[in-house]
Design brief:
This is ATP-grasp domain-containing protein. By secondary structure, the chain is an alpha+beta fold. The chain has three domains: 99 residues, Rossmann fold (3-Layer(aba) Sandwich), CATH 3.40.50.20; 135 residues, 2-Layer Sandwich (D-amino Acid Aminotransferase, Chain A, domain 1); 80 residues, no CATH class. It is built from ten helices and 17 strands. Strands 4-3-2-1-5-6 form a six-stranded mixed β-sheet. Strands 7-12-8-9-10-11 form a six-stranded antiparallel β-sheet, with helices on one face. It has a five-stranded antiparallel β-sheet with strand order 15-14-13-16-17, sandwiched between helices. β2 and β3 form a beta hairpin. α1 packs across α9. The longest helix has 25 residues. The C terminus is likely disordered.
Length: 367
């Protein structure tokens, strides 16, 4: 029986998703083992983890060889455990005897620098690294409204909106589903705050895009693309995330809500709806091959698309470890499909052999 390994930084993370995958595995003659990279013994190459029992529907602790097929669901932070696991995962990805479903994408800045030289460049917000406080002040003076994002951020954490008024500077963010605003009376006060912020992590800077609807709610289109059991890219579905009135995020983690893509697109004028549909189809058609041409092989991509008030279309984020909440809410009939897709693609890789993917090792490995 093929062992399908699911790797995460915590054995309790994404429990409902991983449990569903495990429940669907037996019908495909596969067993599921979940583990943490730091639990690998470098001498014996055995790893402590949990194996799923399809009869009792429970997990039992055990020690086993590193699975041949690995589904990477590690979400890294700034903590010590993340820093400990990163080099271990890089080592695993370099091994020729282990097949990863997907090898991940680099940070947001590296992604931008590569994609800006492709046919997708016109869909990318202008992006630059924040080198110092002066670079933020310069852009704020020129644009009046800017967005600060962590280079390695996810789920909308740590995003700040800055707006220069005549005398003051308005800063806004969202934490624990609440909008937090602060007014700085002068630039000197803002500089003090920025210096502290930039010490914590690396940021990138983008112009603020008017991506809100008539109710002043930020919104975006979340799409999930995955490879099928033959290794071909297919779109699984789309949904529209809507944030709080006056907010800057549409993420569900920030308190956003969801409607179906059909409900949203049919609310537009037919000509506008058709134009957006064609643009989205073009982006989703060429993005996967563009990414795999420049980076390592992938299994799935979550893509966030923003539609500005002037009708312009923007790629806001590309995630190689996407969630499924939006699709499960808007397309509940996809439930079984979403839980079996990783297993089917893993089986495809196992049966066709890893040779086709190993040529990518000469590229830079990235998490």
């Amino acid at each position: 029986m093929i062992t399908f390994g699911i790797m995460s930084l915590n054995l309790e993370s994404e429990n409902s998703y991983i449990n569903e995958i495990a429940c669907h595995a037996e019908s495909l003659s596969m067993e599921v083992f979940r583990f943490i990279p730091s639990e690998i013994n470098p001498h014996t190459l055995l790893v402590k983890g949990r194996k799923f029992n399809p009869v009792t529907k429970n997990w039992r602790d055990c020690e086993a060889p590193i699975p041949t097929i690995v589904y990477d669901r590690c979400f890294y932070g700034e903590d010590e455990h993340s820093k400990q696991c990163l080099p271990i995962v890089t080592w695993l990805k370099s091994r020729s005897d282990i097949i990863f479903l997907g090898y991940g994408l680099p940070n947001k800045l590296e992604l931008y620098q590569v994609l800006k030289n492709t046919p997708l460049s016109s869909y990318l917000p202008q992006t630059q690294a924040v080198l110092d406080v002066d670079s933020v002040l310069s852009e704020l003076t020129a644009k009046h409204k800017v967005i600060l994002k962590p280079i390695n951020g996810s789920q909308g954490y740590g995003i700040y909106y800055l707006k220069r008024n005549e005398k003051t500077i308005h800063v806004k963010t969202e934490k624990q589903k609440r909008i937090i605003s602060r007014i700085f009376p002068n630039e000197a006060k803002l500089v003090q705050w920025l210096k502290q912020l930039l010490k914590q992590r690396n940021y990138l800077l983008q112009p603020y895009l008017e991506l809100s609807n008539k109710e002043h709610q930020p919104f975006d289109i979340r799409t999930l693309l995955q490879k099928n059991e033959r290794g071909q890219w297919k779109e699984q579905g789309r949904g529209v995330r809507i944030g709080s009135t006056g907010g800057i995020l549409s993420n569900l983690a920030a308190g956003g809500s969801v409607i179906t893509f059909k409900e949203w697109i049919t609310s537009l004028k037919p000509s506008k709806g058709e134009y957006i549909q064609q643009e989205l189809d073009y982006i989703f058609d060429i993005l996967p091959s563009t990414l795999e041409k420049n980076f390592m092989p992938l299994f799935e991509i979550g893509i966030d698309i923003g539609i500005a008030k002037d009708g312009s279309i923007w790629i806001l984020d590309i995630n190689s470890k996407p969630g499924r909440k939006v699709l499960l809410f808007t397309n509940p009939e996809l439930k079984d499909t979403l839980y079996t897709k990783p297993l089917l693609y893993g089986k495809h890789l196992f049966e066709t052999g890893p040779t086709e993917r190993k040529v990518y090792y000469e590229k830079t490995l990235s998490h």
